[in-house]
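Bumping with the actual sequence this time:
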Amino acid sequence: MYTIEWKKRGLPHVHLLVWLNDKLRPNYIDLVLSAELPNQQEDPSLFNVVSRNMIHGPCGTFNMNSPCMQNGKCSKGFPKLFTIATQSGQDGYPKYRRRSPDDGGQTFQLRKSGNRMITIDNRWIVPYSPLLLRVFDCHINIELCHSVKAIQYICSYINKGSDQAAFSVESRDEIKEFQNGRYISSSEAAWRIFGFTIHERSPAIFQLSVHLENGQRVYFTDQNARERLENVRNTTLMAFFELCHHDEFAKTLLYIEVPSYYTFTNNRFNRRKQGESIVQYPGVKKSNVLGRVYTVHPSNVECYYLRMLLHHVRGPTSFLDLKTVDDVIHPTFQRACQALGLLQDESHWNSTLEEAALFQSVSNLRELFVIMIAFCHITNLTELWENHKNNMSLDILQQERHRSGNHDLAVTPYILNKTLILIENDLLKISGKKLSDFNMESPLRTDDNDNNFLRDRAYIAETSYDYDILSKYIQENEPKLTNDQQVIYNTILQSVLQDTGELFFLDAPGGTGKTFMLNLLLPKLRVERIISLAVASSGIAATLLQNGKTAHSAFKLPLDLQTNERPVCSVKKQSSLGKLLRETRFIAWDESTMANKGGPEALDRTLRDFKNNDRPMGGVVILFAGDFRQILPVVPKGTKSDEINACLKSSYLWSYITSLRLTTNMRVHLGGDNNAELFSQHLLKIGDGTFQNDKDSIIQINSTFAISVLDRNNLINKVYPEISHLSNKSNEMKKTDITSTDITLINVNKSKTI
C-alpha cells in the first residue's frame, strides 16, 4: 500500500508499506537492512550513495538551527547510540546495529558550509536497504515494522492526507471567515493532469458475503418488488455452492480461496483468463486477489458458526452439506463445528469462576458471569452455567432455607430460575439483551414486575412521575418567570400541544435562567402525560435537569461522530428505548452548542425511521439550548474551521430551526446591582467579539469594578485563605474600598488573576 505526497520543494515522495509473506526473523535483519556506513574500499559505489543520501543532519551541536531540532533536541532521535548487534526490542522499531569505530565501524569526513569538516560515524546513518540504494541511487529510508505500534503509525501516516492550512479572511465590519486550503505545486498539478495514481494497494481484496439459508439481503422498490422476489439474485455464497456442483477444481477450495481463481460476474463465479497457470488443472489460472469473508458477531450464533465452517470445509454444495460431518446431518452449524473439533477449549472460563467462588460474594460471582456473557463471546454458556449454578444460587438458597425453616433444603428449579432472573436483569442493564440472545434458556417470569422490567424499563422510568409533586412545583415557580422567559415558555408549550413538530434553538447566555425555565417546562408537559426527555451534552449539565441524562447515554449515540458520515443511534426499534422514542413528543437538549452536529443528525435519522415520519426529527419538538459564545465541539487535532464545521449551525438541521433568545440576566434582575449588569454586558461583548481591547488582544478590566461584583469577604476568606489578614485591616471596609495594591498582593501570593 502506498501514497504519493509532495514535499516542500514540489518533488514527489512515496510512503510505501509492504507485508512480507514470510516473517523476517531477527537474525536476518542485518542481511536486508543496514544503518551503517559501508566499507569504502570494498564497496565504493554503495558508499557514495549512502554518504550523499542517507546522512541525517548532522544536527544538535553541529547545527542548532536544523529543522529537526525541537526544544534543543533532535525530534528524530539522532545521534543514535552505538549498538554492537541488532536488537528487535519490545515496541516500535528495532535498534539496528551501529558499530563504533573501536568495534569496526566506518567513518568519513563530511564537508559542511564554511569548509568545516565533521566526522560522520554510524550514529548518523538513516536505515536503508543496500539493494534498493544500488538500484535507485537516491534517498530511501527503510524501517522494519515488527510491532503493532509501528504498523499503526505507518498506516496512519499513509492515510493522513496532504498537509493543509487554515487561514482567515477579514473584512471591515464583517466577522472573520475561516477557510481550509492547501497549496498544490506545479509537479503535483502535472501528476494529477496525467492521471498518475496517488494512492494504491495491492493485492486486491474481494469481500465475500455470509448469511443463513434464505437470509440474504434483497433490495427492492415498490415497482420491482415482485420481480425481485421471484428472481432473487445470487450472493457470492450461493454462487460458491453452485460452482462446487459442477466444477471439480472448486471442490478443492475453501470459500476464501475462490477469488484467487475465479471472477464474480453476472452473479456467478467464472474462471480467470489471466494469471499463473495451474499444472494439475488445465484452464485454471491464479491471481493474487485475496478473499475476505465479512465478520459476524458471536451473538448471531448460527451465522457465526456458519462462517467458521466456511473457513474449514472445502467444496460444500449447500447449507445442508456444511451441516453434514461423517455422513451425519447435524441440526445446527454449531453442532457441526463441535463434530469437526473446531470449537476452542474454554476451560479457562471454568477456572475463572472456580477461583472467584473461593473468595467473592455470590452477588459478585453473578456479576462476573454477566460480564462474561455480555463481552467475552463464550460459545458454550449453557455448560458454564450448569457447572457453576449452585455457587451462584447460594444466597437465594439460604433465604429459602430461612423462610421455610428447612435447613436441609437443596437447590430447586425455583431457586435456579430466580437466580437466572437476577442474572438476566443485570444483563439487561449493561447490554440491553436477554439470555436467549446468547443462546441460553431465558428464566420463567410469572411476576408482572419482572415482565415490566424485561420489556419496558426505560419506558416506565419516563411515565412513573409523582404528578402531585410536579403540579405543586409548577404552581410555585410559574409566577417567577420573567417576561422573555414567559414568551418562550408559552411558545414551546403551544408547539408541543399542537404537535407542530418545530425545532427551536434557545440562545441563553450565562445567568439568564435557562436551566430554571427548562426545569419548569419539563414538569408542565409531563403532568399533561406527554413524554418529555431531558438530555445534555455534558454530564454536569445533565445533573441540573430533572431526570436528565447525557445525550450519548439517552440516545445511544455512536462515538465516531467526527468520522461517520451518516451516523444513527444504536437503538433497536422494538426495544424499550425504541418504544420510548416512538412515543416521545418533546426533547430538551441542553449545551447543544458543544455537541458535534453528528449527534443531532443521528437522532434525526433514528426518529424519522421509528416514527415513520419524514419531518425533521420525526415530528418531535426539539429545544436545543446553549450559548455559541462558549465551548464549541472538540475536534481532536482539528483547526478552528473544523470546530465550526462540527457545530450545530453547520448541520443541515439548522435551516429548520427557529432561534429564540433569553436576554434578562437573572442575577441582575433579582439583585438589582448595577455593577453586576455592567459586568454581564462586558461578558456578552467579549463573547460577541465586540469588546474594545488593546493591540496585544489583552482585555483590561478595572480592578475596583471586578472586586465590586464579587463578595469581598468570600473572595478573601474562602478563595484566598492564606492572606485572610487583609480582611483584618478594616472589617468595616466597603467593597469599593479595596485598592489596586490589595489586588496586586492577592495576585502575587496566589499567582492568579481576578
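The C-alpha cells above came from a reply further down the thread. Residues 448-455, 703-754 have pLDDT under 50 and may be disordered.
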